[in-house]
Structure formats: structure tokens, C-alpha cells
Specification:
The structure is a single chain. The N and C termini lie far apart (97 Å). The longest helix is centred in the middle third of the chain and has 22 residues. The protein is 48% helix and 0% strand. The protein folds into 3 domains: 55 residues; 110 residues, no CATH class; 141 residues, no CATH class. With 367 residues, it is an all-alpha fold. The protein is built from 16 helices and no strands.
Length: 367
């Protein structure tokens, strides 16, 4: 009796299949089987705590696949963003594509840092006209900062934030997306254009084709249309934008918070087509200053309410800007801090608060 033929190993795997069985398989099925055997051998040698995915999670034999991609995806679950097919999907931070080496994937997975996606804050009054506009604009700003932080991380050096142009839109809750779409007279679902003439369908604006920049600009223009010049001025005046009440005037963090809110609002009004004069902006900034004595100094330097200062003794008129007034205020705060007069000025301004309140907002730093 001839000796029984020993089965040959397949690609160095710990298991083997007879050649007769391999010959009966298609090329895709044979490749799939070889991959499974290779993975089985690899998992038996690893001391890590990573569990192998069950065979049911692998592609079916009739589908071509990339073995290296499957190996990478078995370590990290990608979280695609739901968007129409022509939009690029983006993996969540911590998920990496198959072109990374095993060492790189292992090193990144062990990182304890994880950047969380921004959360959408629903407006307090949902019934008011344009209630979602401000919340969506704030959310878009948060998403833009999220992208900046992501790109600045050492492990993301030289990488592009995939889908950055639509990240804020696809991250919005679905109900909010639909609400904003209709507010902007855009099409959210195909069923909404049922029965439309072909010409109108071609001219319609679709939510799944818009970018974050386009939606942001449209929102700003929509808000500007409903704001008269007088109302626009009120949006930059106290109490709408006021000095933080949890810290004294001589407080750089409080100054930067006020400056950020003011410049953001001015930028939004300008983007929407509402341009405010320097006099209006200057008066709003000075009216928010809690130190009465310094208010007088600002009026002397930049002109009293509703006006600008005239020419100096030599007959020359100085040009002022929003930056110049903010620089003047900051220089004053820094000067008072250097002289050690922070507490005195804060108390005299009538804007000094107790330490517990200050700790709550600025971590206990009141100077």
C-alpha cells in the first residue's frame, strides 16, 4: 500500500488543507482561506489582550478583500459618518487606515488621549423665529476648533482631517439637520421634490451637497436680514455682551473672554452684511468697562459717546480701530497688575466679587 500523502502547509499557517480541496476553491475562496489560516497562526503567538473578530465579521468568500486592511480593522472599529455616497467618510480619532504598520497601530492604540466630538446645545426657546441659528453657528465654531486641535496633535502631523468640509453638518443631530435645512430653504430628502418640474429640481439646493462654509454663510445672511441697524448695535452692547461678572476688571482672562465674544459677534454681523461703524463699536466696548475712572480715560483717548476725538495740537488726526482700543485696555490691565494694584482697582471699580465665585469660573485666579 503506498504511503498516505501528507497535506501541505498553506503559507506558513499552523493548519493545512489538502491540495485537492484547494483546487476545488475559487481564487477568492482560496485567498480567504489562506488569510484565515495566517491570522489563526498569528493570534496564537500574540500575548496582547486584543481579541480576534469572529469569522462572521470577515468578508464573504465571494467578495474580494485586502488582507492587510482586515488585519488593521480587526484592531480598531472604524466609526463612519453617515452622509450621502459622494461625501468622504471619516474615521473617529483613534481609528487608523490599513496603510499603517502593525507597530504604529499598536503604539497609537495604547495612547490614553482621545479627542471628543463637540456636542450640540439646543436653544432654550425653540418656538422663536431662527432659534436654531445661534446654536448651529456656535456648534460650527466648536467643530472648527475641534479640527484645529486634531490637526495639531503630534500623532496627526502631516495628516488631513478627512471630511473637514462637512464635519460640522454630519455631526449635527439628524432632527437638527432637517430643521436647519428647511429654515434655509434647502432639500433634505428626495421625497420633498416629488412632483417638481425638472427645471426646479435642477435649481434646488440640497443639504447633502452643501459644505459647512456655505451653510454658515447662509445662516449669517439669514440672521442679518431680520436685524435692523439699531438691533444690530444692541447685540454688541451690555447686557448682551458684557464684562464677565465673576471676576474684577483687572483680570486678563476676563478681558480675553469679553474680547472674544465681541469680535465674534462683529465678524458674524459683517459676514451677514451688517457693517457697524467704529463709533458704535467703540461706545459699546467702553460702556461694558466696569471701572468708571478708566471709562473717562477711554472717552478722552477715543472720543465721547457718538463721536471721535478731533485733531491733536499739531493738527493731525489719529486713525483708530477696534484693535487699537483693545490694545489700550490690555496695556492698562497689564500695567495695574505689574504695580500690584489689582485688588485696589477692582474694589474701587465696584466690580469686585468674592473668591468662591471667582474660583468657580476662573479656577480661583482673581488677579
Amino acid at each position: 500500500m503506498p504511503p498516505k500523502e501528507e497535506p501541505k502547509a498553506v503559507d506558513g499557517g499552523s493548519s493545512a488543507l489538502p491540495d485537492s480541496e484547494l483546487e476545488n476553491l475559487t481564487a477568492s475562496e482560496a485567498a480567504f482561506m489562506k488569510f484565515c489560516l495566517r491570522m489563526e497562526d498569528r493570534f496564537t503567538k500574540l500575548d496582547s489582550k486584543i481579541e480576534a473578530l469572529s469569522l462572521s465579521s470577515f468578508p464573504s468568500p465571494g467578495i474580494k478583500f485586502d488582507a492587510e486592511a482586515c488585519a488593521a480593522e480587526s484592531l480598531i472599529d472604524p466609526v463612519p459618518i453617515s452622509r450621502s455616497d459622494h461625501r468622504p467618510s471619516r474615521q473617529s480619532l483613534g481609528s487608523y487606515q490599513s496603510h499603517y504598520s502593525q507597530d504604529e497601530v499598536t503604539r497609537i492604540v495604547k495612547s490614553s488621549f482621545r479627542l471628543e466630538k463637540p456636542k450640540f446645545d439646543y436653544p432654550p426657546d425653540l418656538k422663536s423665529d431662527g432659534a436654531y441659528d445661534e446654536s448651529v453657528l456656535k456648534f460650527i465654531d466648536d467643530c472648527e476648533r475641534h479640527i484645529e486641535i486634531w490637526c495639531s496633535l503630534p500623532e496627526n502631523k502631516g495628516k488631513d482631517f478627512e471630511g473637514s468640509e462637512v464635519f460640522a453638518l454630519v455631526t449635527l443631530p439628524a432632527a437638527v439637520q432637517k430643521r436647519v435645512t428647511h429654515n434655509l430653504e434647502m432639500i433634505y430628502e428626495k421625497s420633498e421634490i416629488s412632483g417638481w418640474p425638472l427645471e426646479q429640481i435642477q435649481k434646488a439646493k440640497y443639504w447633502n451637497r452643501a459644505s459647512t462654509a456655505e451653510v454658515k454663510q447662509t445662516l449669517l445672511e439669514r440672521r442679518a436680514k431680520g436685524i435692523a441697524k439699531k438691533q444690530a448695535v444692541r447685540t454688541i452692547q451690555p447686557p448682551t455682551i458684557a464684562w464677565p461678572i465673576s471676576a474684577g476688571f483687572i483680570h486678563l482672562d476676563a478681558f480675553e473672554e469679553y474680547k472674544s465674544k465681541m469680535t465674534t459677534q462683529i465678524s458674524r454681523l459683517s459676514a451677514g452684511g451688517v457693517s457697524l461703524s467704529f463709533i458704535c463699536i467703540k461706545d459699546a466696548i467702553i460702556s461694558a468697562i466696569p471701572d468708571r475712572d478708566f471709562k473717562g480715560e477711554l472717552y478722552t483717548q477715543f472720543g465721547h459717546a457718538g463721536s471721535l476725538p478731533g485733531p491733536n495740537a499739531s493738527g493731525a488726526s489719529e486713525e483708530f480701530s477696534v484693535k487699537s482700543i483693545f490694545d489700550f485696555i490690555r496695556a492698562h490691565i497689564v500695567c495695574i497688575k505689574q504695580k500690584g494694584l489689582t485688588d485696589t482697582v477692582n474694589k474701587n471699580s465696584g466690580f469686585f466679587v468674592s473668591t468662591p465665585q471667582s474660583q468657580k469660573k476662573f479656577g480661583g485666579v482673581i488677579k
